């Protein structure tokens, strides 16, 4: 994981290089976890658990504390099933989120991510409320080397675009369908009604395997508040964190899982089309602390 100017691992190096565990160790660790966007509640819980482990094993060695921190983070991350459920054929993925979080970009990266695993993909441009969204998605689909179903006329009903995308997949034996959706309408109620309609239309043809909510990691808790309507009404099954800058804000992964009860399934950590990865708890925990 590329390090930003500040990273959790770098901040913790001075903590773990001390000769012994003392009061300043805990204070410095708390500051580092808060700076990494774990949030006060999660930070307090992790510190309490580490205190308990240090006492139980009667250790004063900071190297033991480092190992315990990795294990504790992994335990927390692993409480959630981060596996993408894409076994159905076609596997239909709805991608939702407020405008500006990098939803369209994420779809392009996700398509490329799946192509690397040898899957055939079609994306559906069902965000018909934003004129630029369709062309932007078409550019990303082209870069990922996947098919796209676009509206046949301006302002076409999003649910009918979704319908045509599933139809395309069924006719062509395409394995995975990714459907883009609107991030904003005049009212939240209208947006959720629109999503409900898209779901109903799709489910007449194929089950929906995943509903992925894209969150901008740089906006932290504010991003979660912006996405509350999606979390409550869209049947979200997984989170995708975009703009996750190395380990600077890595704690947000755990904070958002704890707050929503929904697993983070994908991480976007750069601008390139290959900069999207699946979320593996032990790998991520280790990379945060190293």
What does this structure look like?
The protein is α/β, with parallel strands linked by helices. It has two domains: 8-77, SRP54, nucleotide-binding domain (Four Helix Bundle (Hemerythrin (Met), subunit A)), CATH 1.20.120.140; 91-289, Rossmann fold. It is built from twelve helices and eight strands. It has an eight-stranded mixed beta sheet with strand order 3-2-4-1-5-6-7-8, with helices on both faces. The longest helix is centred in the first third of the chain and has 18 residues, at 40-57. The model has no long low-confidence stretch (mean pLDDT 90).
Low-confidence stretches: none
The level-1 CATH class of the largest domain = Alpha Beta
Please, what is the average pLDDT? 90
User: What is the first-to-last residue Cα distance?
Assistant: 10 Å
Cα shape? elongated
Strand order of the largest sheet: 3-2-4-1-5-6-7-8
Tell me the count of domains: 2
| CATH fold topology of the largest domain | Rossmann fold
For the secondary structure, the number of strands is: 8
Which features characterize this protein?
290 residues; Rossmann fold; 2 domains; 8-stranded mixed beta sheet; elongated
Summary?
The chain has 290 residues and is an alpha/beta fold. It has helices at residues 8-16, 23-35, 40-57, 62-77, 103-115, 131-144, 158-172, 188-203, 220-226, 228-233, 251-260, 281-289, and strands at residues 91-96, 121-125, 147-149, 176-180, 208-216, 238-242, 264-268, 276-278. It folds into two domains: 8-77, Four Helix Bundle (Hemerythrin (Met), subunit A), CATH 1.20.120; 91-289, Rossmann fold.
